[in-house]
Specification:
homodimer, seven-stranded antiparallel β-sheet, two-stranded antiparallel sheet, alpha+beta
Chain lengths: ~220, ~220
């Protein structure tokens, strides 16, 4: 095996190191977070660190970089309390990537990149109309990570919107490959996926079983 | 769009809800975490909540479920201070899934599922020999998430092992699809991936550019 040690990656050029370290954590669920600022300007940003916290209550987290590097989304979430997470489809992956450019706070990324704001009645935060799976979160807790000045931002699930063509299976699962949701790797790579299999709940002394296809 | 609200998913059967909520966060980087307990028994467990915390210093986190549901990995990390994260290849995805069965603490999951322990000189924690990308972490912080009794466990990167056939690109990126690293969705679904594209660093007023292929 090729071995790499801290002295090596600490000596690397910044972007080389960022690309390498970001690849190690494996495939990610790059999604667009939609917010609105105190002046009513929508914001849309790409976040690849969405993480499942729990199902009951339904809690979903993401890592926000240090405030100086990524100020707008977190400020808007604090001000408004509501935010949306929107899956990315290959048909608009280039527009989604473009939201990661550093636009000033008064710029509406939806307009800049060519995606469409969508609002639910009485909810003053934008979804991405083009997204086939999207959900609304209400802020529950911002946990500072002192080690590197980042934050774990945790929201509670308040609403889920799914394209009518995508039905949950008989056991509640969503075939994200059929929905076309992309995965990401590193800072700038996006992927389609192909199902290998689902497997039954694992038990000691029971051989692994492929799941009979759930409708 | 189909709309789902909290009253609905709170009324669902537990596994239906878990499947549905776990699909929402999108594709995940299911990996095997290797640890060793105070009696010297190795432990291997599947974790799909690996999350990038930062590149400099190189910090990687994962979410540990409540202690009652998932006691061994976290206890071992606390006792030993070192743990490994090992990417999963389609050739051993069934064995990897089987590690999620609830084995007693005195059982060695490597032996039970048929994977091979691999040790580096002087480092008393097992890697998965079959894994083509794997890394060693030292515990830096365990952050309790009071909302649902889970934990964000953060480790610092201490060593990286990569199969000789996989070279970082000229800008440090790892083509995880070429390495065969799988992605996961929900509790039990595993995927191969296919690169759509990499894109250049996004800038305002500059059209999105596909990256020229990096070697």
């Amino acid at each position: 095996m090729q071995q790499f040690s801290p002295a090596e990656w600490q000596s690397w050029e910044r972007f080389y190191r960022a690309n390498f370290i970001n690849s190690l954590t494996g495939f990610k669920s790059a999604s667009l977070i939609g917010t609105i600022n105190a002046q009513g300007v929508p914001n849309l940003g790409m976040f690849s660190s969405i993480v499942h916290i729990g199902s009951d209550p339904a809690l979903i987290g993401y890592i926000n970089r240090p405030i100086a590097a990524a100020p707008h989304t977190l400020a808007n979430i604090k001000a408004n309390g509501l935010y949306t997470v929107n899956h990315i489809h290959p048909s608009f992956v280039e527009k989604a990537h473009q939201t990661s450019a550093k636009y000033p706070d008064e710029v509406n990324e939806f307009t800049e990149v060519g995606l469409t704001e969508e609002y639910l009645d009485g909810i003053n935060v934008p979804f991405v109309k083009e997204s086939t799976i999207k959900y609304l979160l209400s802020l529950k807790e911002i946990i500072p990570i002192a080690l590197n000045a980042t934050f774990l931002v945790i929201g509670q699930l308040e609403k889920v919107l799914i394209d009518p063509s995508l039905k949950p299976t008989s056991d509640g699962f969503l075939h994200l490959d059929q929905a076309g949701s992309i995965s990401s790797n590193g800072l700038d790579a996006y992927y389609k996926t192909e199902l290998i299999d689902r497997y039954d709940y694992a038990k000691p002394d029971t051989p692994v079983q492929k799941m009979a296809n759930k409708i």
